[in-house]
Write a structure and sequence with these properties.
Number of strands: 0
Oligomer: single chain
Order of helices and strands: HHHH
Helix content: 40-55%
Mean pLDDT: 80
Structural class: mainly alpha
Number of helices: 4
Largest sheet: none
Amino acid sequence: MNGLSLPTFTEAHLPDGADRLKVLKNWLTENGITGSHLKDTADSIKNQIFEVLTFKDIEPTYMKLLEGMPTQSGQDEGHSP
């Protein structure tokens, strides 16, 4: 992450129901990351998380959301919508 040295971010930083991205950005700001570096650093952290994210990491509430979303199965099979 561009040679930054930040303290460890733990689950203790994330109260139940908290807006995770907002908490992350506040934590970065508290540790001296501001301006355009704030967005770049937050994006870098998000990308690193998604690179190692596995199915078991997805919380049940997000799974319910995904299950309720319509699929595009017709397009997947080469059919027109």
